[in-house]
Design goal:
single chain; about 525 residues
């Protein structure tokens, strides 16, 4: 008699959630093969007198697969059991891959019986967290190198997927999930909902609703599923909900998208939210500020936009007005936002920071960072760089090997900024990590402590005065880089009909002219 191999997903382990067909097969076969822990869950429906029960230890997946194939080829009906769904990090792949690499072995008839996967079981227990696009990522590096896992985490976090973490922490991997937290905090609001579900639908089940800042305070091990929400996920009535978008075009509130996590962007978001407008404030990186006036009407989105993702966001969310509050250097997203607003017929206004270079004999205006670096190379002593990381390589190449010059850079205290500085060759003594805004008094103290001989800053920053005035008080020369028109053939940074240099005017245009409602 010909045998057959059933690869059976048994779900989370609760027999009430075992599919009827799966239960019938397990009870009817002559041989059951599986991990000892899974077989213990199936004990009430196993028949030790009639059936051969082949128990194997955890991590002996290949051995389980070969035993099941051998018995099936000997004419037995065999059930190879796998937790959750056998095709999701389960035994189905192990069997098919083994057979593909052993062509001398004739494959028996095989049928895969689906089960409830861990991600779906956990999601059901916490509400509706995977109502939109999601990704499942295993943190186990037994089969996949950890750097590759980290790359996938970055892509998923930046793409704003809801993410389910399988195998989140083990005794041999206690710290990797801490790196996961840092990855997601780089792209998402610290208060993004996180569900920690352990032993789902089993004895000693625990369910904790937390957020990105605090989820590591709870017990996480190999029996845990961690679900990280996207930028729109929220908690309601002790449930995590990720909106699909059914109600986005039905509400009466205008929807405004504000691009840019600048101080001015936060100000405009709060002003519009207090007018009962629905606002999405988009940051390139997770914001340091987590409390807003009118917060009920403000949603935070993190991660970059290209044309396609911005167009999809505008179309899907019914955005009626785009407010461009991006940094003066952010020319690419500025052009993209303008093009999307034209293509999708939304309102658009751009805030242009007034560029004022102080009129003083010790203040030198230049049009490029290359010019500024060349001036700095003529100095001796400490050169204080308050220019961020985007153009830092220009100064590293010119100054780090320059005799007598000691460049010191002030950066945001983020992992990426510090890594960039270290990669370029700046030592720990040459890096100051601080979160702005920074007062004139603190700048004054830093200039004194580091015996600064020259300061390089960018024009168009909101705190330019705070940097320049303390320097002039100490007779320190200042180089101000005004490169806002460089590389801008489209004239995006030039004064135009869509550009205003008053925050009050930005608010007035949005209130008076829109948003225009979009039909989805």
């Amino acid at each position: 008699m010909a045998g057959i191999l059933y690869i059976v997903g048994i779900g989370p382990g609760n027999l009430d959630l075992l599919a009827p067909r799966a239960a019938n097969i397990i009870q009817q076969v002559e041989v059951v093969v599986g991990y000892r822990g899974y077989l213990n869950l199936l004990e009430p429906i196993l028949d030790h007198e009639r059936q051969r029960i082949i128990e194997k230890d955890l991590s002996h997946e290949i051995e389980r697969a070969t035993w099941a194939i051998r018995y099936a080829n000997q004419g037995y009906r065999v059930a190879l059991v796998s937790s959750g769904d056998a095709g999701v990090y389960g035994m189905a792949g192990v069997v098919f891959e083994w057979l593909s690499q052993n062509p001398a072995i004739s494959p028996p008839p095989i049928e895969v019986i689906p089960g409830i996967s861990a991600i779906h079981a956990a999601a059901a227990r916490v509400g509706a967290p995977i109502m939109h696009d999601f990704a499942a990522i295993s943190l186990s590096d037994l089969m996949t190198p950890w750097p590759q896992i980290v790359r996938r985490l970055h892509y998923a976090a930046q793409g704003d997927f809801v993410v389910a973490l399988y195998n989140p922490r083990s005794a041999k991997r206690p710290h990797q999930i801490e790196e996961v937290k840092e990855v997601f905090l780089h792209y998402r609001d610290p208060h993004t909902p996180v569900a920690v579900v352990r032993n789902v639908y089993r004895d000693q089940e625990s369910i904790v609703l937390s957020d990105l800042t605090a989820f590591l305070d709870h017990r996480i091990d190999m029996f845990t599923m961690v679900l990280i929400g996207n930028s729109r996920s929220f908690v309601w009535n002790k449930r995590v909900i990720t909106p699909r978008g059914y109600y986005d075009s039905m509400g009466k509130e205008p929807h405004v998208l504000i691009l840019g996590g600048t101080m001015e962007g936060r100000y405009i978001a709060e002003r519009l939210a207090l007018r009962h407008m629905r606002v999405t404030l988009s940051y390139q990186k997770a914001p340091s500020v987590s409390r807003f006036a009118g917060a009920d009407n403000i949603r935070i989105r993190t991660g970059g936009f290209d044309y396609q993702s911005l167009a999809e966001f505008v179309d899907h969310n019914g955005v009626g007005y785009i407010v461009d509050m991006t940094h003066p250097d952010a020319q690419v997203i500025r052009r993209t936002a303008k093009q999307v607003s034209e293509d999708y017929h939304t309102g658009y206004v751009r805030y242009r920071r007034p560029v004022t270079i102080p009129d003083h004999p010790l203040v030198y205006g230049v049009n490029s960072h290359e010019e500024a670096a060349n001036i700095a190379a003529t100095m001796s002593g400490t050169v204080f760089l308050a220019i961020g990381t985007k153009f830092l390589k220009t100064y590293a190449d010119r100054l780090l090997s320059c005799p007598g010059v000691f460049p010191v850079v002030r950066l945001l205290p983020s992992v990426n900024s510090l890594r960039d500085a270290e990669t370029l060759g700046f030592s720990a003594r040459q890096v100051i990590a601080m979160m702005g805004p920074i007062s004139p008094a603190l700048n004054r103290a830093l200039y004194e402590q580091y015996h600064v001989r020259l300061i390089v800053v960018k024009a168009g920053t909101y705190d330019l005065h705070n940097k320049v005035e303390p320097a002039l008080e100490q007779d320190i020369p200042v180089v101000v880089v005004n490169n806002l028109s460089v590389g801008d053939p489209a004239g995006v940074n030039s004064q135009g009909a869509d550009a205003v240099d008053s925050l009050a005017e930005v608010e007035r245009q949005v209130v008076d002219n829109g948003p225009r409602y979009k039909e989805n």
